[in-house]
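On clarity, I found the account of how folds are encoded harder to follow than it need be. For illustration, here is how one protein appears when written out as sequence plus structure tokens.
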Amino acid sequence: MEPAATPPIPPGDPQRGTASADDARARPNADPVVGITPRPSRWLARLVSAAGPLLALLLVVGFFAIADAFQGNAGKFLTDGSVRLVGVQSVKVAIAALGMTMIIIAGGIDLSAGTAAALAGCVAAYALKQGFNIQGAIALAILSGALCGLLNGALVSMLRLVPFIITLGTMTIFEGFGKMIAEDGGTIRPPTGSIPEWVDRMVTQFPDPLWIAWPLLPNFGWGVWMTLVLAIMVALLLYQTVFGRHLFAIGSSEPTARLCGVAVTRTKLAVYTLAGALIGLAGVVDLARLGKGDAMAGRGLELEIIAAVVIGGGSLSGGRGSVFGTLCGVLIVRVINLGTTALGLENQVENVLLGIIIITAVAVDRLRQKRLNPTGRTSSD
């Protein structure tokens, strides 16, 4: 008896080894089908998403350059000194923002970053006052930042408490510790001459022309180059290691990451600790800039750090962020500060402009999420 003939499988049936273009369009979240070229609009959307922070930076620079020219101050905004000033002023925020980028990618947030950096600066100043050399003081500052991050990570991951509330509380705790270390007025000055010249040059604004150092390298303080090296290291950690992939997985969907075998608790402890170490280094930069430890120097710094990450494309919902975008976000914040100053505008105008940009960035991220997830369910649902 002959076996029954197998009925023909219609084109596009899921049992076939291939699928039709209609099937691919019906399942937009499915893996790309071999032989079907993505629509140009999708490639354009990806390109704009990747280059968005850079385009935003160029728009902000162009806006202030044109406004400067209309006010008759042509040449006051885009000068060698202005470029160096933006670079030097970006070092502290950029280093801390690199750590914040990793935290936000993992679906967390750290409101204590500013006071933790100020505490690290006070620790370094206190160590110098107690006779430590500069290397020991820097190590203690970075260690204090790492311990602050470890505390945040432990409270967030082990107790599974909301990062926003936890770090809001530790923000006050760290400022209190800084005031305990500091003297009257919340500041502590290290002995004269205890901060060597090479540390000062980390954030020095050289009076020489911008391109005198080397024909291909601008004449910045070496803190700018240190920041770029750290940025490359963080980028490699995020995109070339299992740890980095775990951060994106946790931020995209923590329950799914747990089901896939990701050690969520250990990973969160590690990312908060590592970010804390970078924040501690940012405190050292502040010590070099101010020449003293100031327990209240971190007030409001956390908002600038978080704003830089969000403006650079980081999602407060987690699972999204980039080192390049964060650096562009930092520069946007500093250019707004420089531009409003060059135009003679009050500080309130700077705050309004920065707030508008932050709201726009969050709104764009929300629209992007709705486009990718029409049901409106987030990773935390």
Observations:
- Residues 9-36, 212-216 have pLDDT under 50 and may be disordered.
- The radius of gyration is 24 Å.
- The first helix runs from residue 21 to 26.
